Amino acid sequence: MKKAIALIGITSVLAAASQAGAVTVTLACGTVGIELQLCKEGSARWAKKTGNTVKIFESPALTNDRLGLYQQQLAAKSSDIDVYQLDVVWPGQLSEHFVDLKGKVPAGEVSAHFPAIIEADTVNGKLVAMPWFTDAGVLYYRTDLLKKYGFTSAPKTWPELALMAKKIQDGEQKANKAFTGFVFQGKNYEGLTCDALEWIASFGGGTIVDNSGKISINNAQAAKALDTAASWVKSISPAGITTYDEEAARGIFQAGNAAFMRNWPYAWARGQEEGSKVRGKIGVAPLPSGGARNAATLGGWQLGVSQYSKNQAASIDLVRYLTGPAEQKIRAIQGSYNPTLPALYKDKDVLKAVPFFGSLYNVFTSAVARPSGPTKGKYNQVSQAFSTTVSSVLNGQSKGQAAVAKLATDLARIKGRGW
After folding, report:
1. Matching PROSITE patterns, A to Z (predicted)?
2. Which residue, 169, 257, 259, 366, is most buried by CB atoms nearer than 10 A?
């Protein structure tokens, strides 16, 4: 009896000590789709497991706004945020502000992720962040409407998409004036950079800046791609497309008011939710080719620990937990967020929830990277110049050839003495 009481006493002391050592970790989460909800739920599971507390910082939805806010926090060496959610193109710009996770995260855990994403997260030998989910642009389409208008498969080329979208749009507008053929991300921000890079790469127009750092945008195929996209505005896409981000496009498609949509994989889970007008009527295919290839821009997000965090050990543990297989599987099933762990693409539960993860596996593993590597710390300026140029073409202020020629001059100025 005395021994049992003694053991209870020791357990109480240990629990109290554990509680006394508990810390609060602040995690910056995205807010697109159900991202915030899944972020909260995952961090709550870690908190329950460890006895620590997680405070959620809700980041702006637009990537440009989020980057600006993060840069302010990091420049001030603020300890307010411990773990940041980082876009795949940010490690090169922000690496100095983050803890080197090499050696702090077991090598076996690191090597379980796609090597190309680990490479993107590594700057000058420093592992800036751990991959959380990857992304690539895909084409969503209404399976019921393709069948209704006599089409047997998704469009393989952009001209095919334009033809199909116009026929479906014209037919559906007889009963629904709000119906449109194709929605995408046309607003002047990072999302437009992603969409336009897909158009240009699919036409064989390169990737704005090539891997050696040479400015490659000033070519006929890039110009043709931009002129093609401009021809969709007020034709198969609404005039307001130049103000759409991911959620605006998803809202229209999910309300049953579009035949086709370019978006990221997260939109699948939202479209299949109870109450969705398109539930059970969605197909997913590779984005069309412009004659050279099907091209999808590489997206995705990572988790990095701030150099200025006062709770680095707990923050690293949180990152390891959230980027591990159990959490990535939950996020894949519930939110259709692409895992960064190849093993999960063979998981039966994941493939049942998101069938196209299997059929479009090559789209995700061969996605086109934005030129953040060769342009390094100047990527943000390059991307802004690019999206502004594309926006001018979509808005009818410029034609493709003149636009890419001017952009090349603008990029040369940004490049200055070298990237």
Report:
1. PROKAR_LIPOPROTEIN
2. 259
Q: Diameter of the chain by CA atoms?
A: 89
Check the CA dihedral 200-387-34-276 and report its sign: negative
Query: Could you tell me the two tokens for 320?
Result: 């390891």
Backbone angles phi, psi at 377, to 5 degrees: -70, -10
pLDDT of residue 8: 41
Q: Which helix (H) or strand (E) holds 84?
A: strand 83-87
179: left (phi over 0), alpha (psi -120 to 50) or beta: beta
Domains plus CATH for the chain? 11-135+299-365 (3.40.190.10), 138-297+370-415 (3.40.190.10)
- Give the Cα separation of 329 and 341 in Å (integer): 9
Counting beta carbons within 10 angstroms of the beta carbon of residue 235, is it exposed (0 to 12), middle (13 to 18) or buried (19 or more)?
middle
Quick: pLDDT tens for 310-367.
Answer: 999 999 999 999 999 999 999 999 999 999 999 999 999 999 999 999 999 999 999 9
pLDDT tens-digit map of 30-42: 999 999 999 999 9
228 vs 158: CA distance, rounded Å? 8
Tokens of residue 184, six digits: 């995408």
Query: From CA 38, how far away is CA 56, in angstroms rounded?
Result: 12
**Residue type for 81, please?**
I
The SS3 call for residue 26 is strand
